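Task 17 of the worksheet. Students: predict the tertiary structure of the chain below and write it out as structure tokens. Keep your answer in the requested format; marks are given for formatting as well as content.
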Amino acid sequence: MEEKKKIKIIGLGNKGRHGKDTLAGLLAPKLEGSVVMHFADPLKEEVSYVGVQPLIFRRFYNGKIFYYLRDHVNTYITKTAEDMPLLHKIFTERQINEYWYMAEKDPEILQVWGTDFRRMQNPQYWVQKIERMIINMEFSKNDLTQYILLPDTRFINEYDFIKSKDGIYIKVLRLEEDGSLFIDPHRSPTHPSETELDHVEANLTVKAKSGDLKKLENSVDEILELLK
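Model answer:
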């Protein structure tokens, strides 16, 4: 009888620009047939879609500010400035009334669209999308274990999804020279995407100072030991 292929999910979290993708890039070649995916892949696709109407626009009526977020091709969801404080801050600081699409990585808009909009509609929105992507993948027939690396694990439900599949979670911490935690100046440090997994239990915690690629390379062996 042919043995059933096993899927092993490895999540890396949790803060932005802490070396998660770098570590995944070092680990993937050590795991034959591994695939690197992101919960944010469908998010980036949505935000980068060039439509005939803007992704987000705002209008002023009767002294109030309203934001319109494109839900489908010709459908918008209406929110007030009070509903979307981070979005209101972005539009005000950038002095814009329309946002058409993401031409290059825009962490603030990704935070707004991914969390303040889509996850407010459905907390499982992105987890369900990544699960469907995994189900529809064509895996190598040579290896009995197929490894999937998710180096943007940021939320409790993403963590729970990985654990429910008997996966492992690795926390990656980027440190300043004085040992303090690196904070990305281009995104809100108090946003749930930066804080929600601060205190969850990790199978392994990797700490490396900015630019210390050797430390990340050494941690690959520790991860491989976990997978035995």
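Marker's comment: DSSP finds eight helices and nine strands in the chain. Residues 9 and 148 are 5 Å apart (CA to CA).
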